[in-house]
Hints:
The structure holds two protein chains of two kinds.
Chain A: E1 2-10, H1 15-28, E2 32-37, E3 47-55, E4 69-72, H2 75-81, E5 90-94, E6 108-112, H3 114-121, H4 127-139, H5 144-154, H6 163-176
Parallel strand pairs in A: 1-4, 4-5, 5-6
Antiparallel strand pairs in A: 1-3, 2-3
Helix pairs in contact in A: 1-4, 3-4, 3-6, 4-6
Chain B: E1 4-7, H1 8-18, E2 23-26, H2 34-45, E3 49-52, H3 56-68, E4 73-77, H4 79-94, E5 99-105, H5 121-125, E6 136-138, H6 143-160, E7 163-169, H7 170-174, E8 176-179, H8 215-235, E9 239-242, E10 249-252, H9 255-270, E11 275-280, E12 282-284, H10 288-295, E13 302-307, H11 314-322, E14 328-332, H12 341-351
Parallel strand pairs in B: 2-3, 2-4, 4-5, 5-7, 6-7, 10-11, 10-13, 13-14
Antiparallel strand pairs in B: 1-8, 6-12, 9-11
Amino acid sequence: MKKEIIISGFGGQGVMSIGKNLVEAGMEEKFFVTWAPSYGPEMRGGTANCHVGISSDPIGAPMFTHPTELIAMNAPSIEKFGYKVRSGGSVFINSSVVKEQFLREDVSVYYVPCEDIAAELGNLKVANMVMLGAYIGATKALQVETVEKMIHEMFTGPKAKLIPLNLAALQRGLDAVQ
Amino acid sequence: MAKELWKGNEAIAEAAIRAGCDCFFGYPITPQSEVPEYMSVHLPKAGGVFVQSESEIAAINMVYGAGGSGKRAMTSSSSPGISLKQEGITYLAGAEVPAVIVNCMRGGPGLGTIQPGQGDYYQATRGGGNGDYRTVVLAPSNVQEAVDFVQEAFDIADEYRNPVMVVMDGLIGQMMEPIEWKEYKRRASTEKPWAAGGKFGRDHTNIINSLYIEPEACDIHNQHLTVKFNLMAEKEVRYETVNCEDAEIIITSYGTPARIALSAMEVLAAEGIKVGLFRPITLWPFPEKALHDLAGKDHVKHILDIELSSTGQMIDDVRLAVEGQKPISYLGRAGGMMPSVEEMVDAVYKALGKEVK
């Protein structure tokens, strides 16, 4: 298994945390993982991205010119990385924000209305968890149970009440790509 | 022990605390600001002292003072900030005060960019400040090495009574990777009978000083330092080789580009090209003899040096080591741009005089 993922979107869309969740789950499943963020001026307003590697073997390059998958939370992310995704790869598009179709036939394209689903669940902050669910559901790169376990460990103390919401968001993401 | 996910900069700060760092003096600058940020919270809790100084120059002089009193002292910065610290580093070397200095390198010259760079190679390996001196320079290529090397840097500094630098490009500071906290064992005794940390009944006064106004005395002092630098050069050389046994081309690279090279090597191996990696871990002392011997092997036809530098800097040490035995090519990017796997693959084909696929 070797995933080279770029996750990209506006600051505040949870781009970095989707990446962190993926590497934490990957590490839990004993894969080699890397997480490399963009840390330029884009973090202070524009489009931010992070590169996530999950692999059965040690990881060389931690940043990818041609990712196997792209998670695009906004339209500029498609423009910047959409055509760089490897043939046969996957593109996950947040269709609550991106209204255009992505016309590439050599990759699998998944449209996930992250913010719409999050709004239905009553909290826009879980939009990124919806996308994480969609990614796991479509790629089967990691076990759903691992992410669920992680959610339980992530929210403790007074934040524990957020567990059902996040589990629901994860499930809706899984459902969105079935 | 279980692996934990750590960001490079925070990991080296924690590593320093675990290695018994008593004092940290620093000033924020991207991409290393998480080091002082982490230290400001956690070092006082561990019984240490954290000061955010008014400038980089102040920070390195605080290190000079704390190190001179026998404390384990550290500072970190990024390229333009490290330039400001050079005066302090030469004083540390001259007065034989141990210290750890981390440079989380960004692009230059001048203010350059906050993105990763390796343009401070000359500065780190040639002393950087005035006068004849050297510092051991450790260059990690991943977060685990960053952790291990920072801890060992304190020991090397104490052993030789000399500042030690850990240089890493900004990406290693910013990225997260799983690491293992190994049990930290000090190299040797940390007794510092020379330190000016209070007399406590001692019958003489210890003096921390780099001024030798009499030419004869300064000459003798320099000779003494040179013996020490020669000892470091003999004992501290470190490097890693990957697939060099039958390689027709050797990539020389360190830090992040060295790990990108590993990905390029996978691609090349699948296409039948025998390519090896020679990765200096100590930039000073440079693994001169090992590279010289490798370049002399019959199977090696070409050397390709890859750096995050437009002009190439380590390539000079590569040339000195190879001594004209084999041709050397260069691939470099600057300004925070990374040479991609594809660019490296093309550069290998070009160096071997083969058609680029």
